[in-house]
Design a protein that fits this description.
Elements: H1 20-69, E1 85-90, E2 95-98, E3 119-126, E4 129-136, H2 140-143, E5 151-158, H3 161-164, H4 167-207, H5 225-274, H6 280-309, E6 316-319, H7 320-329, E7 338-341, E8 346-349, H8 351-368, E9 373-380, E10 383-390, H9 411-416, H10 424-434, E11 438-442, E12 449-455
Parallel strand pairs: 7-9
Antiparallel strand pairs: 1-2, 1-5, 3-4, 4-5, 6-8, 9-10, 10-12, 11-12
Helix pairs in contact: 1-4, 5-6, 6-10, 7-8, 8-10
Length: 463
Amino acid sequence: MPHRPGPLTPGLLRPGRLSVQARLVLVTALLSLASLTGVAVAVDLIVRGRIEREVYASTQRAATEWIGAMGTSTPQPVTTPEVSLFQLVDATGHVVQASRDAEGRPPMSTLWPNSDDRIQHGKECTRDGCVMFTAYRPSPQEEELWGGASHVVYAGRPEPALLAGWDLELGLAAAVLTGTTLLTGLAALLIRRTLRPVEEMRARIAEITVTDLGLRVPAPPGDDAIASLARTVNRTLARLQEAVSQQRHYSSMVSHELRTPLAGLRMRLEEAVTYPDADREETIRGALGSVDRLQRIIDEMLLLTRIRTSSPQQAERVDLGHLVREEAGSLPGPCRPVLVVHDSPRVWGNRTQLTEVLTNLLVNAQRHTRGAIEVSVAREDDEAVLSVWDDGEGIAPEEREQVFQPFVRLAAGRKRDPAGSGLGLAISRAIAQAHEGDLTIEDSPRGPCFVLRLPLAGEHEPG
């Protein structure tokens, strides 16, 4: 049976296995510990240095006052509660004179200042403790008191307890640990409160399924990163819901449109089986007609899906005016469109797909016109505008968006082209949107006016 690591297994402490919240708390704890430790070390050095300076300043002042009191004789040093250890030592290391607390003791130190640096500080330690002192060598004029022989005055005091022990360091260490604990706890509380909206978003997203895309994550107020993330997630969910809804509607329409030719194909095949004497050639032609319709619908559905799910391939700079002249000139039929090319704007796009749009619009205009078709190309601001107008019956404003839906055909369209699939305009709009443009129906004095708007091509190919 494989070993299961316990809760204290070191492997679980690897950063990769910690949650984001735990990692943030851990980083905060380490940074707090490092920062407070640095502050504590600085405070320790500052405090120790200040105490040492104060101690040496007091011993130097006491030694200076004793030497200043010396005249023709050597008076007894004046002790204070702070400085009570005084010794006058000659060059042989003999204590000539000492204060009451220093009597009977050997010299405080062997430190002997030279003539260039007559005042020096030091510390000597014995089993009884440490003494911090100032060694003061009198000047040659002052040494005349002893016949010119070198002497040194030592003024000392016991080392303060704060310097002698580790109380300062222990206190600072306790303060560092306390501060680290408080900062870590505060950081954990703030991090937990900060990440609470993220956890709520995660829980809500876990509830969302394909069958219920209407839920939205709670968006906290403000403009911080979490609020922006929540709004972005909600916008993504809204787009996903719309896409799924369109896909369901599209699938429903596809199944409906395929059912009719499949039913016709099945009927003709069953007729051929049931009635062997029936005209087999006519039956086969009818079946092939149903198959052709099925194939046309499937091809157009695949084209529409490919356009909606990918960007235009093999994009190039297309002269819209030149394209219109070519396609309108080769359009079959008795009604020739009138061309009004005010400019020849260029756009980035797939030439084959843009030709598909223009062909669909021209064929649609020929199907509904009474005798007049006009195609115009112009430039408006930063857009290329292509308009196709015919003098047919027109499309009511409330029906203009419907004609761009897949398989939607108005009564007039079904009457003029019963075999149509209703995908031509849907494909045309999808191509326009794939090229970052749009295809709409705008108002005109008479008949429908389809308007294709595309962004103008810049100097460089778009990324």
